[in-house]
Amino acid sequence: MVGSGDVARRAIPWLVRRARVYALVRSPGQAAALRALGAIPIVGDLDRPETLRRIAGLADRVMHCAPPPASGKDDPRTRHLIAALRRRSLARSLVYIGTTGVYGDCAGEVVVESRPPRPANARAHRRLAAEQRLRRFGRGGCRVSILRAPGIYAAGRLSLARLERGDPVLRPEDDVFTNHIHADDLARLCCAALYRGRANRTYNACDDSWMKMGDYFDLMADQFGLARPPRVTRDEARQHLSPMTLSFMSESRRLDNRRLKRELKVRLRHPAIADGLAAARRELLQCSQETSANAGA
Questions:
Q1: 3-state DSSP call for residue 254?
Q2: In sequence order, what are the residues at sequence separation of 6 or more whose Cβ sits closer than 8 angstroms to the Cβ of residue 237?
Q3: CA nearest 150: which of 197, 107, 208, 94?
Q4: What would the pLDDT profile of 95-153 be if each residue is shown by its tens digit?
Q5: What is the CATH number of the domain that holds 145?
Q6: What is the signed CA dihedral for 6, 7, 13, 15, rounded to 10 degrees?
Q7: 171 in a domain, yes or no?
Q8: Residues 117-120: contacts with CB under 8 Å, at least 24 apart
Q9: Number of domains composing the chain
Q10: What's the CA gap between 212 and 210, in Å, rounded?
Q11: Containing domain of residue 142, as a range?
């Protein structure tokens, strides 16, 4: 596991029942949580390639969940990882969590994996650079599968603060299509791709929902008993929202996930956003109850 964040930690319990799992961590302080899940921590930093020697030839399969740096148009972290993996016998398979942002704005069209990437911002350029490096690496004997993920959500990954602030969304005539995947489903898709993913193959790792962004926030507000966000024109949105938020409101696409279902053979637990938001609400409620019980004890 390279990049032991939320999605990786959701995948580890499934993987440890089938294999010995090593998890790369930046500091020893992160190790205890991963040991509790059954993984074996290895201290190393993708920004410091000299710390990656221990992972060479260590594993048959690699799950690469680490994001690129926050600036530039390249991903040196993926370059350092590939260099480390090449030092000894290659892994049999590697799965990378990328982003559907590499497609750029598609004007609401249905997007399949064969559509040429047209990244519109530096974030997406960094992700595409990582994909291209991994594709070249995959031609050398390791079976590389790329999961292009859209907006990942779960109990701890919701924009509830945005709703509580009353941040606006676009009116329907200006709005864009967005796509989503529950973190649990993405973790399961990564595990499936480690064993079933095809060589140098990309997959739209999304659920079955095609939804406008404003409708998504309305649904979240209804699920959590919050006020629906105000609707504004695009010009009005520029006066209230950050450039990063506006960049997400500038790209519209509807992702086709048939390849995912056909080749990875995974049945999504939350194929519709409404199902996933309801599950997230239950999870948050359970965590709140457990916290209260522990405080009382």
A1: strand
A2: 168, 169, 170, 246, 249
A3: 208
A4: 999 999 999 999 999 999 999 999 999 999 999 999 999 999 999 889 999 999 999 99
A5: 3.40.50.720
A6: -140
A7: no
A8: 120/247, 120/250, 120/251
A9: 1
A10: 7
A11: 6-157+179-208+253-270
